[in-house]
Amino acid sequence: MLILGNEVQIDTAPVHIAPGGSILCTLKGDAGDIAAMLRALREEIAFGMCDADAQNAPVSVSVYFGAADRPDFDNVIKNFDKLAVELADMPEGTAKTGFTMAARNRVIDALGK
Predict the structure, then answer these.
(1) Judging by beta carbons within 10 Å of its beta carbon (0-12, 13-18, 19+), is residue 54 exposed, middle or buried?
(2) Burial bucket for residue 19 (CB in 10 Å: 0-12, 13-18, 19+)
């Protein structure tokens, strides 16, 4: 996958839906802002990534996290008001393919360069 002109290896894995469901969050905005937000979020909650479109501006990245972590997410995202945020429920039983954690981290690193 191309991220800002750099080839990033993407390995895939099934998306893990947390008990009680998960939330799919699509972030759009500047690559550096998205990378900073995802690094800050990584310090607060476990999250996966299931999509990234970073060939053209604005960049779009989709991540998911357990619905129980929504308050922690809201606390982090309030510091990144330049980003457009779309949230959608992913109920238990949702089948989806995402990135491995290593691939997620490579995308975050590529966005922040």
Answers:
(1) buried
(2) exposed
Matching residue, tokens 């998960």: 22
3-class state of residue 26 by DSSP: strand
Between strands 84-90 and 12-14, the pairing is unpaired
Contacts of 18 (CB under 8 A, 6+ apart): 65, 66, 67, 68, 69
- Please give the C-alpha separations between residue 76 and each of 14, 32, 35, 42, 108, in angstroms, as whole numbers: 26, 16, 13, 10, 16
Beta bridge partners of 31: none
How far is Cα 37 from Cα 48, in angstroms, rounded to an integer? 14
DSSP state of 69: G
Q: What is the pLDDT along the chain (113 residues), one digit of tens a residue?
A: 889 988 999 999 999 999 999 999 999 999 999 999 999 999 999 999 999 999 888 999 999 999 999 999 999 999 999 999 999 999 999 999 999 999 999 999 999 86
